[in-house]
Amino acid sequence: MNILVIGAGAAGLFFASFMDKHDVRLIEKNEFAGRKLLATGNGRCNFTNLNFSAKNFKANNKYFIQYPIEYFTNKDLIKYLNEIGIATTNLASGRCYPKTMSSKTVRNALFLQAKENADFIFNEEVISIDFKNKKVKTKSDTYIYDKLVIATGGITLKNSGSDGKIFDLIKNDIPLTKMTYAITNYETEQKLSKKAKGTKVTAKASLIVDGNFIKSSIDDVIFQDYGLTGTAILDISNDLSESLVKKRSSYIYIDFFPEFSKKDFEKYLESLLTRFAKRSIKDILIGVINEKLLEDILKISHIKPDKRGFEINDKDFKNLVNSLKSLSFKISKIHDKENAQVTLGGVDSNFINPATMESTKVKDVFFIGECQDVAGDCGGYNISWAASSAKVASDYLRSLDV
User: Fold this and answer.
1) The pairing of beta strand 250-255 with beta strand 23-27
2) Are 185 and 227 in contact, with CB atoms under 8 Å apart?
3) Which of 111, 130, 191, 341 has the fewest CB within 10 Å, making it most exposed?
């Protein structure tokens, strides 16, 4: 059985590494394998998460996720990486990494395993696919296949090879969903001062869409001149990008003191105002709020910086509490498409068999990884999905040729 794989990213490498004693060829447009994998997790390769469920994923078919992640679990992935020589570790958050904290470790070990089972052909860009006659044409050659596995990624990190051109080649035969960029940063209508640019705090970011709470995360929030970024923003990014595509009213509320209930925070703030009643409000808050944000917080609260503690009235107090417990930003658009980490949308999962990864529209064609309309949360879920979907497809194809 002649198996042709398009794409040597995470999904393609996992697929090839899982195969054995089969005629597998893998064609890749780049000069080496796993280019995008090297950028994963800020170069550290966060490959899965100990906190894992179908709720961590989005897909057009919400029932599509469960079978693959149960067939090849996060624990199975950790065990497999250990078996191919990768020592692993995890953080308190549940995020899992190679012990070396280097993406090269995972890329290199996967490639070494994969090339034992597959022939790699680099610098080969696909220009057409003839599903009827089972032919894939590149700029320099034509490949015949019995089974075709498409593992080309989505539309993110185009410089890595995931430029989305594959979707133009298959769109007449394969149903696609609308695609956008996720796990990225966002522009806001409200802009803070230049002084606040780059300020990082630990806070709670809550996503509110059309007035309804969707999701929240407590982690780093970074204020930029264009809007918001940081791990807490990336954690809610998939839902936020989805809401923007659907043109829904989207707000992020920042709670600088998530460890306090609103009532307890009011008591805390009252105690500061009483204790330092003769000081200016700016001086009272100097040990409470990052100095680079202080002027913006007071301006948003309509309080003059030199106003003394005993002069703060009920309206001032209410405004200040709201600014520190629920500072709102209306999200206008995605800021950084070039460095977005995952594609939201892709090959419609309603037309992929979750038990084989075979297209239900075109026989003998399989889709794995990010080219599907599956998007995992920030935190290692997308590499884990690449592995799970690849394992399902590889085991099925191996079962056909025993």
Assistant:
1) unpaired
2) yes
3) 130
Q: How far is 41 from 25, CA to CA, in rounded Å?
A: 29
Measure Cα distances from 245 to 82, 209, 340, 382 in Å.
Answer: 40, 12, 15, 21
What is the sign, positive or negative, of the torsion defined by CA atoms of 398, 400, 401, 402? positive
3-state secondary structure of 69: helix
DSSP 8-state symbol, 35: T
Q: Which pTM was predicted?
A: 0.93
- Determine the residue type at 54: A
Residue 393's pLDDT is 98
Mean pLDDT score of the chain = 96
Residue pointed to by tokens 């209508």 = 189
Please state, in angstroms and rounded to a whole number, the distance separating the CA atoms of residues 281 and 276.
9
Strands 180-182 and 186-188: unpaired
The one-letter amino acid code at 71 reads Y
Query: How far apart, in whole angstroms, are the C-alpha atoms of residue 173 and residue 61?
Result: 19
Give the Cβ contact number of residue 50 at 10 Å: 16
- Residues 345 and 370: their CA atoms lie apart, in Å, by 9
Spatial contact of 202 and 93, defined as CB atoms under 8 Å apart: no
- pLDDT value of position 85: 97
Distance, CA of 176 to CA of 6 (rounded, Å): 18
Contact 393, 368 (CB under 8 A): yes
Residue 402 scores a pLDDT above 60 = no
- Can you spell out the DSSP letters for 91-146? -TTSEEEETT--HHHHHHHHHHHHTTT-EEE-S--EEEEETTTTEEEESS-EEE-S
Per 3-state DSSP, the chain is made up of helix, strand and coil in percentages (nearest 5) of: 35, 25, 40
Domains and CATH numbers, the chain: 2-180+343-399 (3.50.50.60), 185-335 (1.10.8.50)
Collapsed DSSP state (helix, strand, coil) of residue 86 = coil
Q: Which stretch of 93-107, 149-163, 289-303 has the lowest confidence by average pLDDT?
A: 149-163
Average pLDDT, integer, range 77-103: 97
Please check whether residue 96 is in contact with residue 88, taking contact to mean a CB–CB distance below 8 angstroms: yes
Among 27-36, 158-167, 391-400, which is the least confidently predicted range? 158-167
From CA 160, how far away is CA 310, in angstroms rounded?
A: 58
**Which residue is it, tokens 């075979």?**
358
